[in-house]
Amino acid sequence: MSPGAAPRRAAFLDRDGVINRDTGYLHRWEDFEFLPGVLPALQRLQAAGWALVVVTNQSGIARGYYTEADYQALTGHMRQAMADAGAPPLAVYHCPHHPRGQVEALARECDCRKPQPGMLRRAAAEHGLSLADSFMVGDKLADVQAARAAGAGHAYLVRCGQALEPGAAEAADAVFDDLAACVDAVLAVPRHG
């Protein structure tokens, strides 16, 4: 960010269950499937001035189900597909840790695994983002908790065909069927859009 420039607002997006179908420990591009309406919704958000930042827990790395290289390869394909659709992400952050992981170096508590706010705070610091003017879209209570802990202005949940865990809907500012419906609502509010 250039000196004197105003902080940008961001749409923080969970990956699995928000952007793509959650198949459980997804790590191969050939198994990746964007959810219906996601790419046009992201393009509309970006066109309205929102920076797109993906924040995703990836405990499968700590658990030994796939490697960091596997994750990075899939992420490269996802970033390219988003860019090709006119919605390139500003950044993609992931947490490879889990306290009960099998990979010793990653088997620990951290400040980046949602519900901790580390990924959102790091993105804000590295890219000059205003957390108070930003929002988070997730599919789990941990996404809402991370947004609240980071000081994000709003936290939304999407169902995408899945039931929400107990307490999640009550913790969120709103719940939508999918990301496209969430984006419709965000862009309909003059102070947001």
Q: For the record, give the distance between the C-alpha atoms at the N and C termini, rounded to a whole number.
A: 22 Å
Radius of gyration (CA) equals 16 Å
How many helices? The count is: 7
The portion of residues assigned to helices is: 25-40%
Major β-sheet strand ordering: 3-2-1-4-5-6
**What structural category characterises the helix and strand content?**
alpha/beta
Q: What does the main sheet amount to?
A: 6 strands, parallel
Order of helices and strands: EHEHHEHEHEHEH
Taking pLDDT < 50 over at least 5 consecutive residues as the criterion, the unreliable ranges are none
What fraction of residues sit in β-strands? Answer: 5-15%
Total beta strand runs: 6
Quick synopsis:
This protein is α/β, with parallel strands linked by helices and 193 residues long.
